[in-house]
Design a protein that fits this description.
It contains 16 helices and 16 strands. By secondary structure, the chain is an alpha/beta fold. Strands 8-7-6-9-10-11-12 form a seven-stranded parallel sheet. The protein has a five-stranded parallel sheet with strand order 2-1-3-4-5. A four-stranded antiparallel sheet has the order 14-15-13-16, covered by helices on one side. Helix 1 packs parallel to helix 14 and helix 5 packs across helix 8. It is elongated and about 90 Å long.
Length: 414
Amino acid sequence: MRVLFADPCHPRAVAKLHARGFECIEKPQVKADELGPLLAGGEFDVLVVRSTLVTAEAIAASRSLSLIVRAGAGFNNIDVAAASARGIYVCNTPGRNAVAVAELTMGLMVALDRHIADAAADLREGTWDKPRYGAARGLKSRSLGIIGLGRIGMAVAERAAGFGMRLHAVRRPGRDPLVRRRIEDLDFTLHDDLVEMAAFCDVLTLHLAGTEQVVNADVLAAMPAGAILLNTARAGLVDSEALLEAMDAKGIRAGLDVFEDEPTGSTSGFASRLVRHPNVVATPHIGASTEQAQEAVASAIVKVVRAYAGGRVVNCVNLETGRVGSHVIAVRHEDRVGVLASVLAVLRRHDLNVAGMENRIFRDSTAAVATMDLSGIMNPEVVDEILDLPHVYHTEVRPVPGSDSAPAEEDPGP
């Protein structure tokens, strides 16, 4: 199996895969427009990327590619829809860089509160200005609003609690019970919406995987004068023009690790009005760039690739997770050659498409059960014909809840 690394990766991942018989090709400086031709001529099975843009054109260029691994949690640099259309798995490595991003977030917060960047710059120039740089507010008992309570957001919450900060979040139904319990343990104050929360917070920090704008002019207007906004997640989450206005009008300060139109290379010139603003402390998208984080991501990459080579797909972001189609059929059968082929032939005659299928063998037995998601019109004859097949023990069909074939629920009344 051939694996292409199109971004720099910790050598541990390459070494471990190579030791297990994978052919690893490293092209860490490849540009987005060079990826397609590289894939077209390389017969690669697996592509590993971090920040390299994987376009629909690059995906279509390869006839052999079957797995794309994102070295990190987010995957907005990959055209997932194009991969799905060609039956290519897209997997990520979530949570492995959470601590690194949380540490940088806290570092930016402290740097802004204590004016560390400006003080260091003045000292390098020979200026000692203790009155100016000794005017910090301090973080103990300040209110921190966290937008996004995944692994990174919770890692920030735990560290901020150690600083003695008061934690805030937006109330959201359906949260994981473990997250709800952690929210209670850390004594979060919950709010009905983001604008309401922003009015209470000395610091707002963003930890969302999506790119939809969250912090707009209304949120910035609600923040107290001189408050801090931190973004180590995605540049598109913040209205940059509104942020510039808020920094000029009410002294909002910002700690930023992500920017729109970032350079594609690891070193490059970069011009940004946000970076030049005196209220900003900025870093060049290094949130996950610690040795510890890169080692953890490398281990996760190896796990994903080895699992795939062994017939399992882990951390996949583009597979349906629930039932699909109109019906589910379960066929209990003897595990022998030709049984499932006969079942599929019946389904084909009745124009039923198999949208998903799993066949599991019972331990210490020759029996198995095949579960299939079907799309189409289910006639009673289908079950009868399958039951008449040799080596089939039992067949059960049920409609998928919510599909057109599922029975409507009774009106519960007023």
